[in-house]
Prior knowledge:
By secondary structure, the protein is mainly α.
Amino acid sequence: xxxxxxxxxxxxxxxxxxxxxxxxxxxxxxxxxxxxxxxxxxxxxxxxxxxxxxxxxxxxxxxxxxxxxxxxxxxxxxxxxxxxxxxxxxxxxxxxxxxxxxxxxxxxxxxxxxxxxxxxxxxxxxxxxxxxxxxxxxxxxxxxxxxxxxxxxxxxxxxxxxxxxxxxxxxxxxxxxxxxxxxxxxxxxxxxxxxxxxxxxxxxxxxxxxxxxxxxxxxxxxxxxxxxxxxxxxxxxxxxxxxxxxxxxxxxxxxxxxxxxxxxxxxxxxxxxxxxxxxxxxxxxxxx
Length: 288
């Protein structure tokens, strides 16, 4: 009599889950790349696996989204309501940073450059940022074009002419006299430092770490995922990882806003010069 009764919703759900597990085990047996990545094994001993081959569902981290959104929105409102106050605080923070921890920026830049060179020239530099034998998705020319188009090009076009002149007219303290040949050489050296190997080393370190974690280790495309080996899985996917992701989101937003703001100023000034129109207002620049 019990077998003739229609199946309940709970019974159907249990059977569906069992069928899903059997199907998953069958898929895992088809290819070694379809299996969960063995994170506890040294990377040199495994062929690598991409993030797109990890059957992982992604959702919104409510804490990260809420905190990053509230902080960003609060700053935007502050800037709209009291622009002068934002400017005063920003300049004060910049001056304090340069006076007290400016040496740290230079030290970090040197350490990053040396570290990237060591990684690149060591056997670790031959580890593919993807599966073994996998060909690059884009050509070298496309990669270079994307590197410049993704934000660096804006900075080069804006600061390329202006930064050497600024250092020439207003050299750094204890370097050279203003508007002299020595000041010109020091200014160009400062520009090479800002836009040369040190800057590219920082880009390579962060980009390489994210690419390695995602396309070699099969982890999520989050900044916290690159700290999994350092902090452990529990911390990287817990509160510590959330703090890292919040900081990364805010830093990316403000960095992108600065680049887009510079681009808007360039476009606005170009429109003014070409058309002879009056100086564009902030509203027009925001629209651009």
